[in-house]
Amino acid sequence: MSQNNNLPAKYDVLNDLQIDTHGFLPIAAAYCNRVGLIDLINKLVPTEMDLSTGITVQAMVLDILSGRSPLYRVNSFIQEQDTELLLGTKVENNLFNDTNIGRVLDKIYNVGTSKILGEIGVNVSEIFQLDTSVISYDTTSTNVWGEYSNYSKERKDDAPKIVYGYSKDHRPDLKQFMTELLCVERGIPIFGKTLDGNSSDKTSNNDLLTNVSSLMAKHGVEEGAFIYVADSAMITEDNLEAIKKNLFVSRLPSTYNSCKDAVKEAIKNDNWVDIGQVAELISKSSKPRASYKFNETTVMLYGEEYRAIIMHSDFYDKRKLKAIDKKIEKSKKELCNKVSKIITIFSCEKDAQVAENNINKMSTSFHELETEIVTIETPTSGRIPKTKKRKMITKFELKYTIVEKSKLVEAKREEAGCFVLISNTPATGNNVLNGEQLLKIYKGQYGVENCFAFIKDPLIVNDTFLKKAERIDVLGMIIIIALTIWRLMERSLRSWVTNNEENLPGWVNRKTDKPTTFMVSKYISGIQVAKTPDNQRFLLTSLNDRILKYLEALGLDNSVYTTVNCKCKPIIPKI
Question: Is 121 helix (H, G, I), strand (E, B) or coil?
């Protein structure tokens, strides 16, 4: 298709045409259309209202992706948009009032946000051919401002509680709710849910593990054919029982004695297998990256044996090292205080030897004493004899030096660079995963964690007051849908780079092999489109090479700005 459409001469630009200025949103709408968002929501949540549930959800998703304007301004947002291009049909902006949106949110809640997100996840997985062999789970807390005092009284039993809880943002003074995500391919959600603000990661893991087999069955993945990845909160007796036949990789908490024993044994044996650097996001800076080595053993937990892969990083845990340094300093002071009260000069060598035996038994966690007995001659006291020469007396001085237990300190410092992965994946056979592979799978957890920065944006939640806890639940669902669209676009960009072995334009004038959706959203702007009275659209802006390259990598072309219900072509990474 040509870069520009020619505007027919019969139209007067000033009087006949509506001029819209677009940026990134028609692209996001094309991804929503490919997922079938409007039709899917309308099917699951039918309504006879003038404003359909599907159109409302897609409008709110695009509002979030427009730059994070507060959701109470949906009406103002829609007023500035070509609704037919973005939503597939012309919608009057006055329909997006507080009453209509509130009713839509209530209808969605009654159907169930988890059900809707599950169905969207299946659609996304099938259309974009996502790899569901590894699924990553994590939760985060979102702070809210205000008392929300009526939530506990008026909310439905299954609506999320807005309460105080353990704050992952270190704001225990604020109430919060929690969000859980189940992602594939380093951060594309296939399921999510809004949880109580005081919910425990251990409990939420258990709830998901109880249903994960049936959830993955909808994706055509049988029990035991996927690997569940979660952080150390997963490792409890109940959760290990709930995992059943499914495979998992997690981190063994250091509170378990078996974790400490495994690390000590690995350091003692010093039989490491070098992995090297495994970071997927290669930094262009001169800052060095961590290198790893591993040692494998087994541990027994609650009567079952699991693989334990002890990982050692040459980027020592600074927090742990600082704690060790404090303990070393405390150990030295403690020993100094002990020996400061000891008599060190003796008249009898035997007494000196007894004292030396006693002092040699003194030690603290990281220090011990090295001693020696030194013979000294001291003159007698009193008058100087006529011979002008005092009589000398032999005494014995017990000298000591405080020394660090170097091997122990070195071992402790080595321990600071270690963590233990625990897994029930097969240790032998055709499908065995070695330590390096398990580490890469576990490190893929960063994809979920990167999603949380999107979810926790304060403009989305803190500037929005919703009168019902049920609506907070639906808002959480809509944010997760927006996140899904955002991550799918980034996946397409990076898949295109991999498939074509060609970098895309990045920041400033640099090329990048790790393009981001945020980058694209900032560079695509100011695209003017003329709309005629008979609803034809023509580009008035010439698209530069950067934008055209981005559109290609996203499975689109310039028709995304002129064609209603335009859909992207999924960019599938080559195997």
Answer: helix
